[in-house]
Specification:
326 residues; alpha+beta; Hypothetical 12.0 Kda Protein In Nam8-gar1 Intergenic Region, Chain: A; Arc Repressor Mutant, subunit A; Alpha-Beta Plaits; 3 domains; 4-stranded antiparallel β-sheet; cytoplasm; SDO1/SBDS_N
């Protein structure tokens, strides 16, 4: 059975017909130290009462005992008011024959976790610090190739966030003054093509730190509040020597006659992806080069080696992000 909080000794005695979770024969269940999970379905909002921190452990697979997650195995319309969900509402929203336990699991797995203000603030701080740490490890000064401190990255992102919010405010004021909702037509529509901008408005708790760090890096690179570029990858490329001198064919349609013309050798093409060669050597029947490659070029290089050498070449990542620190 799931654990149920004991009533406060100073509160009125509970209804004699129901165990301690219910109070004053009012069919209300009072719970404390609770985290809520809410799911809107069938035009109604349903809630379950869980122990703090246990929901995330359940969703990550750390906790597998449902009794350790739920404060009480029931579904509510409003936990804070102790209003349990009528069977008719559950049947209408989830299906007549769906067992209560399955309904609880659906809410637990798909619902939105509600947390208190202090917990929300702490969670936001954790995600914020993780995003800053990831960004600081992936970006460098393009001139020195040295990393920035987390404080400098944080200030740069704060600057972008302030600018983005300012632009949003200016846009709203402009739309209010000129008549919002009026679509651009004619020359105006052509003069203002829609382009995707990498704007940064700050960290949120609804997205992973990794995905937000990627958004932050794109915004910093696009707007350059401080000079930044992605740290280069350090790769080892190996290839059979018997394919190095093979000519690489240009794509069809590369010239006016539609003929394929040679555009260098396989070796030339591989080296064109490498921004800086660290070592280059031939060992027996294999050629090997170790060097630095921009992250954006990695996929093209990997695809080329895989396709052009027909399995006689490979690309290994030695370092995902090469940086220099003072």
């Amino acid at each position: 059975m799931s654990r149920i909080n004991q009533p406060d000794p100073s509160s009125p005695p509970p209804c004699p017909h129901v165990r301690g979770a219910r109070d004053d024969c009012s069919n209300q269940i009072k719970l404390t130290n609770v985290s809520l999970v809410r799911l809107k379905k069938g035009k109604k909002r349903f809630e379950i009462a869980c122990y703090k921190n246990k929901v995330l452990e359940w969703r990550s697979g750390i906790e597998t005992d449902l009794d350790e997650v739920l404060q009480i195995p029931n579904v509510f319309l409003n936990v804070s008011k102790g209003q349990t969900a009528p069977s008719a509402d559950l049947a209408k929203a989830f299906g007549k024959d769906k067992p209560l336990n399955d309904i609880i699991l659906e809410i637990l797995n798909k619902g939105e976790l509600q947390v208190g203000e202090k917990e929300r603030s702490a969670q936001l701080d954790r995600v914020h610090n993780e995003v800053i740490s990831i960004v600081a490890s992936k970006l460098v000064d393009p001139r020195t190739k040295r990393v920035y401190t987390t404080g400098m990255i944080e200030k740069a992102l704060d600057m972008l966030s302030s600018q983005a919010h300012q632009q949003q405010g200016d846009k709203k004021n402009s739309e209010a003054g000129s008549g919002a909702g009026t679509p651009a037509t004619g020359d105006d529509a052509e003069a203002k093509p829609r382009t995707k901008e990498h704007n940064w408005t700050g960290v949120v708790t609804t997205k992973s730190a990794k995905s937000q760090a990627l958004e932050a890096m794109k915004a910093l690179i696009a707007h350059q509040p401080i000079p930044v570029t992605r740290a280069r990858m350090r790769l080892r490329i190996t290839c059979s020597t018997n394919v190095l001198k093979q000519a690489v064919k240009a794509p069809k349609g590369a010239d006016t006659e539609g003929e394929q013309k040679a555009s260098g050798t396989v070796k030339d093409k591989i080296l064109s992806y490498v921004e800086q060669v660290e070592t280059q050597d031939v060992m027996g029947s294999e050629w090997e080069v170790v060097g630095f490659v921009e992250p954006g070029a990695f996929k093209g290089l990997s695809d080329f080696v895989g396709n052009e050498t027909k399995g006689q070449g490979r690309v290994e990542v030695l370092d995902m992000a090469v940086t220099h620190e003072d």
